[in-house]
């Protein structure tokens, strides 16, 4: 493999990690000092290493360290950092038209993204879309549309869910610290039901669904629920894959009771799991699908896509916003869809699972601190627990993340108890890069 990948618009970025200073290095430390004076401490950084350039699965920091990135900005740069096609499309669009505001004078790129979302979300029926700027905004709009359509107000969510940092989405999250503590009062009429967490509840999908449904029927009543919002694979919750049959049973119950079934595919969607949307793995056909993160290769874009009759419940002027569906972000999204198709990137997610899962299971056999290896495609995690007591082992995750960072590998933690190590690399990551990261993880486990 060549030492460098040359992008037409950027200086060469190496293809393997390279650690040349302490991490963070001196220039990052200087920037961190400037930051402390002017950036709110409410905005924290998992690894205060300042990034100057990036390509594929590599981040190059201001001290010239090259980090192997298994986080992708939390699942955003799914097709790779500064993907050449995305950069070219965005640059061209930037010079043609940067902004008009779709609700004032529209442009074709917005329509094309809506067409692509209609084509690639599950379900063979007429679909419509609204584009917004962030995942949380997509969640807000999905709920808003479901309320208007049903004339009901109740919002059901699941334990261990994460949906964002706006007022409504804070109320929908499971974890108070750090997301909502002290930021209330919160939006009302949000009901949090037990989820399916096979490692901990030992329930079949059918049993777990019966528990979720019974909880909602007792505490709210189906007739008062506008929607149920679920992440098909819970992201921040720790890549929790529900037991087989759980989600289809919930969808069936929603359909029977006129509750809009909303799949929050913000982390699990856009090719991450080897399908366009993770819902497909579970045979789900959601009424509304929320997409964000990976949709535009790193530019801010998100969408609500779903049944035309539900999406059209909103009155003209009721949806939108100044930057929603920005032309440059839309051009990037079109390029992302084209790359997934033309380069069969769905297969790349499956390849990544094929490298990570067997290797992690092997590590699990040697290191009993690994309680479970789980996930689908390029969305794989290990849950760590004290081998004796079974207690969540956040300290071990913290040590592994810190160890890997020192070696130039960026890993992310997750989970309500912080005891999950998640990997959501870009689909551009090579087998060689994955094995390199696994080697670092192995030495980190040995050093625990
Ligand atoms: N839903 C899910 C499942 C997410 O993973 C996230 C972001 N981690 C969000 C919603 C919120 O998205 P954003 O940060 O773009 O507002």
Regarding quaternary structure, how should these chains be classified? single chain
End-to-end separation in angstroms reads 33 Å
Put simply, the count of helices is 14
Biggest β-sheet strands, sense, barrel: 7 strands, mixed
How many structural domains does the protein architecture include? Answer: 3
Task: Write out the distinct hetero groups bound to the structure.
Answer: 4'-deoxy-4'-aminopyridoxal-5'-phosphate
Q: Please compute the radius of gyration using only Cα atoms.
A: 21 Å
CATH fold-level name of the largest domain: Aspartate Aminotransferase, domain 2
Strand arrangement within the widest β-sheet reads 6-12-11-10-9-7-8
What report would you give on this structure?
The protein is α/β, with parallel strands linked by helices. The protein folds into three domains: 1-41 and 52-69, no CATH class; 86-342, Aspartate Aminotransferase, domain 2 (3-Layer(aba) Sandwich), CATH 3.40.640.10; 346-423, Aspartate Aminotransferase, domain 1 (Alpha-Beta Complex). The chain contains 14 helices and 17 strands. It has helices at residues 26-38, 72-75, 84-96, 108-120, 135-150, 167-172, 198-201, 205-219, 246-256, 308-311, 327-342, 345-366, 394-406, 431-447; strands spanning 4-7, 10-14, 51-55, 58-61, 66-69, 127-132, 154-158, 190-193, 225-230, 260-264, 288-291, 302-307, 370-376, 379-384, 409-410, 412-414, 420-423. The strands form four sheets. Strands 6-12-11-10-9-7-8 form a seven-stranded mixed beta sheet, with helices on both faces. The protein has a four-stranded mixed beta sheet with strand order 3-4-5-15. A four-stranded antiparallel beta sheet has the order 13-14-17-16, with helices on one face. A hairpin with a 5-residue loop joins strand 16 and strand 17 (420-423). Helix 4 (108-120) packs parallel to helix 11 and helix 13 crosses helix 14 (431-447). It is globular, with a radius of gyration of 21 Å. The two termini are 33 Å apart. The relative contact order is 0.15. Mean pLDDT is 97; it is low at 1-9. The chain binds 4'-deoxy-4'-aminopyridoxal-5'-phosphate.
């Amino acid at each position: 493999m060549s030492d460098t990948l040359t992008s037409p618009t950027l200086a060469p970025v190496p293809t393997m990690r390279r650690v040349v200073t302490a991490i963070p290095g001196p220039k990052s430390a200087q920037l961190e000092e400037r930051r402390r004076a002017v950036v709110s401490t409410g905005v924290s950084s998992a690894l205060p290493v300042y990034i100057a350039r990036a390509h594929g699965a590599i981040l190059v920091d201001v001290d010239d360290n090259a980090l192997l990135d298994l986080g992708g900005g939390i699942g955003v740069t799914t097709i790779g950092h500064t993907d050449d096609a995305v950069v070219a499309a965005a640059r061209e669009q930037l010079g043609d038209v940067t902004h008009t505001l779709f609700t004032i004078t529209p442009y074709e790129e917005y329509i094309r993204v809506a067409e692509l979302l209609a084509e690639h979300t599950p379900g063979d029926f007429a679909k419509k879309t609204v584009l917004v700027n962030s995942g949380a905004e997509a969640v807000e709009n999905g709920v808003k549309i479901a309320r208007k359509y049903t004339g009901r107000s109740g919002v059901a969510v699941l334990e261990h869910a994460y949906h964002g940092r706006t007022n409504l989405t804070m109320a929908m999250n499971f974890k108070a610290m750090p997301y909502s503590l002290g930021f209330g009062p919160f939006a009302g009429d949000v009901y949090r039901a037990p989820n399916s967490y096979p490692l901990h509840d030992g329930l079949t999908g059918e049993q777990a669904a019966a528990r979720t449904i019974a909880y909602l029927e007792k505490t709210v009543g189906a007739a008062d629920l506008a929607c149920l919002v679920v992440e098909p694979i819970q992201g921040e919750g720790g890549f929790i894959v529900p037991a087989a049959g759980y989600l289809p049973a919930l969808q069936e119950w929603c359909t029977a009771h006129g509750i809009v079934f909303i799949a929050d595919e913000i982390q699990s969607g856009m090719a991450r799991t080897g399908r366009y949307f993770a819902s497909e793995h579970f045979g789900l056909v959601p009424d509304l699908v929320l997409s964000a993160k990976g949709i535009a290769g790193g530019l801010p874009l998100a969408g609500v896509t779903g049944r035309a009759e539900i999406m059209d419940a909103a009155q003209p002027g009721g949806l939108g916003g100044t930057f929603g569906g920005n032309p440059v972000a839309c051009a990037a999204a079109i390029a992302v869809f084209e790359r997934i198709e033309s380069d069969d990137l769905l297969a790349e997610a499956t390849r990544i699972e094929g490298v990570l899962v067997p290797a992690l299971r092997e590590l699990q056999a040697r290191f009993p601190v690994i309680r479970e290896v789980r996930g689908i495609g390029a969305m794989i995690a290990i849950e760590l627990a004290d081998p004796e007591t079974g207690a969540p082992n956040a300290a071990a995750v913290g040590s592994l993340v810190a160890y890997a960072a020192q070696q130039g590998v960026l890993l992310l933690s997750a989970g309500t108890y912080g005891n999950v190590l998640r990997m959501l690399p870009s689909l551009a990551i090579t087998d060689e890069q994955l094995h390199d990261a696994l080697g670092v993880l192995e030495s980190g486990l040995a050093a625990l």
